[in-house]
Amino acid sequence: MPAPKTTDPTKNILRAHAEDAYADELTALAAQDEFTRPTGWNLSPRAVVTYLLGDTLADGTVITQKYFGDRRIIEVAVSSLVTDRALLLVGVPGTAKTWVSEHLSAAISGDSKLLVQGTAGMSEDALRYGWNYARLLAEGPSEGAMVPSPVMVGMQAGKLVRLEELTRIPSDVQDALITVLSEKILPIPELNKEVQAVRGFNIIATANDRDKGVNELSSALRRRFNTVVMPLPATLEEEVRIVTDRSAAAAAGMELPPIKKDVAAEITRLVTIFRELRNGRTEDGRTQVKSPSSTLSTAEAISVINQSRALSHHFGSGSLEPEHLAASLTGAIVKDRGQDEPVWREYLEVVVRQRKGWEDLWEIMK
């Protein structure tokens, strides 16, 4: 008989906010943080970097590593937020831009929920404010009839605001941010007043120039951001570590039990395939290969491993086998059958078929 479901709704949340999932770490860091905290910050810049990069505190509390990469990138990002300029994280999809922005907001403001998701159909209301039209018709323009945007709330509360996919937003809507970023005010002409930003307010935006539907930032808006480029993992070992760590955490959230045997070999093989197709050459540099249209990011590698884990658990023996990996690989790589399928078939023939120790994968994929 299955166990009864919990009545606590928080236990069934698919993905907790960073400030909730890592509340113990943030509390321990705040208690032992002896460095200067800027006004409106929950932690000092040093403690924020420690939160993202991991460490063991003096009392034995383990701070888990959230970002795997160059320490200087995180230090520059945190330092930018101390200034009066906003932060723009730029990189191809899957370079942890959203992940980093969420954890920066959680560590600095204790709140990562002030989020604006950029879309091609966005209006200025999402960046400024909207109206409750029933009250607007009944009362006319008033503060009670106003619906503040996350940007307005962040300005009033002195918190960080996350702006995802900035380059997906139409250019004329993007420019609604210029006054907010330069003057730190949000005019409300209907009420003949303005909102002035409280210390602690800033914006972390993310953008990429790889996807379709990208709108270039105006030079006036770009000047108001400090830009940090988020690179893909530099080495195979680093990317394998990221995929291993993040996929294990995701598997726990999906209620998948641990794999019965070590998955390191299959993760390494997957990451190797992604890196070689992405870079257009094999890891040893001896063979040139064509690249598909898909980005083959680290995030996609994590997704393939998660899908393979689910296949193994629900439709296999519980051991992650090459057949589970193969079942998920093609869908991740071949996004455009006319363009990507020939590239994938050529890679299988030229690389997979010839590589020692990969005979099992070739037999499945051929």
TrEMBL record:
> Organism, per UniProt?
Neolewinella antarctica
Q: Note the Gene3D superfamilies from the entry.
A: P-loop containing nucleotide triphosphate hydrolases
InterPro entries tied to this protein: ATPase_dyneun-rel_AAA, CbbQ/NirQ/NorQ/GpvN, P-loop_NTPase
Q: Quote the protein name from its UniProt record.
A: MoxR-like ATPase
Q: Which Pfam families match?
A: AAA_5
Taxon lineage: Bacteria, Pseudomonadati, Bacteroidota, Saprospiria, Saprospirales
Start and end residues of each ATPase dynein-related AAA domain: 87-225
